[in-house]
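Each field is set out underneath.
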Amino acid sequence: MSGFLDFIRLGFNHIAAPGGLDHLLFLLALVAPYRVRDWRHLVAVASAFTVGHSITLALVMTATMSLPPSAIEFLIPVTIVGAALENLRRPGQAPVGWGRPVLAAGFGLIHGAGFANFLREMFVGSPAGPLLAFNIGIELAQLAVLALSLLLLAGLDRGLGLARKLAPHAVSLRRVTASAIAAGWAALLALQRAPW
């Protein structure tokens, strides 16, 4: 059982640690358009991302699929740019419905390959238990980061709302700002990792 808990811890730390900048930027891009009252939609988006990366993680870990690490490392920040740009498409409203979870699941497929390259060297034998534990850790970390982010963004909304001129545009302003930060940073990462 301690091995199972170790892989939960490993998954949690893979997201929440400073070395998980890619994933933290992706989570920032995911959370940017939401308010606290939209938490159910955000949980659906985060869970869809987990399903997507779990599928690819299992396929790569069981050697059913093989993807070049350099391409994956380049595509991960590209997905962050994509998520951030999608936020800017409709800056006045939080995305609801199935479109955002489907997008997150698709991006999760790419991120899962990156997780697999990281995790592959960590164990020998059957991958089922470690994969499950690692995914539980990732999901717990994502939910913790998203909850903290929602609270911080709510505080920012309230702070911006104190300025009369900004009050009507507080959510839109922070959505655009957070998305621009995530997109800009991720674009730099993508350029650094370009496989050409």
In short: DSSP finds seven helices and no strands in the chain. The mean pLDDT is 84. The two ends are 44 Å apart (CA to CA).
